[in-house]
Input
Amino acid sequence: MNNSVYILEDRAIIYVNGKDDKDFLQNLISNDISKVSDNSSCFASLLTPQGKFLYEFIIVKHKKGYFIDCEKSQVESLLKQLNTYKIRSKVEILNLSNEFVVASFSYEKFLSIEGSQDILGYTFKYREDPIVLDPRNKNLGARLIINLEKLYLSLKKLDLKNADIKNYYDQCYKLGIVPKNFNQLQNKLFGIECNYEELNGIDFKKGCYVGQENTARIKLKNKLSKKLFPIKLIKGKLIKDEKIYNDKKEIGKILIDGKYSFAIIKFFEIDLDNNDRLYSDNAELEILKPFWLN
Output
């Protein structure tokens, strides 16, 4: 069994609680907050009114409120955005990133812990702290959200040993799930183009939320023509915002450069199963199609 644990120091925790917390979140997020309980967590996003990507996060029930597990580089702007929508809602929005930390470990280890169940998003308490089977994909493993002061004692009791976070990033990338640098995606693509339907991040049956109108229109009218894919550098250099070509025809754009690179691709215009070599102005590359993506 893999006993490695990854301390996700690039994650932050926001806590939302108060009389109106459920309605407040329901009116904002792409998923249904009713799915979140002591035994279930969800993946969701916050979009622009036009349906463009802004933030993604995991929502976990904690005591009388909700943890929002988000990328640390976005936490201040997400807090500002949530407070903008707060208006007269009776909610308290706190940044608890200095107090709580997120640790990730394997799916197999999760199943070995008493109280776990093999259900995406399944959540249970370990010594009062939530453990969540990642609601996006079980191959991402589980997450423990815990007070920093209790972290190492709990890891010892769970027989988990600290490992290089690079391995976690590599696993996310291999699965075709963005591990970091979400700021490079903001306002660049629609939320539905981020594969949120396949990653259980959109509920098409819930009522209105920010960006719902365009998201629903793209889905219902079958207008989804582009999706986010990991890309692999063959030679040269990947540069953000450069266009991608297949035999001189533009079929996408690089959105995240660096080691864990992603691009928005017109997936109907290319055979994703044949690993065709593609080009940008400064690179030769190929698309890595995740096994779970249709």
About this structure: The longest helix spans residues 75-86.
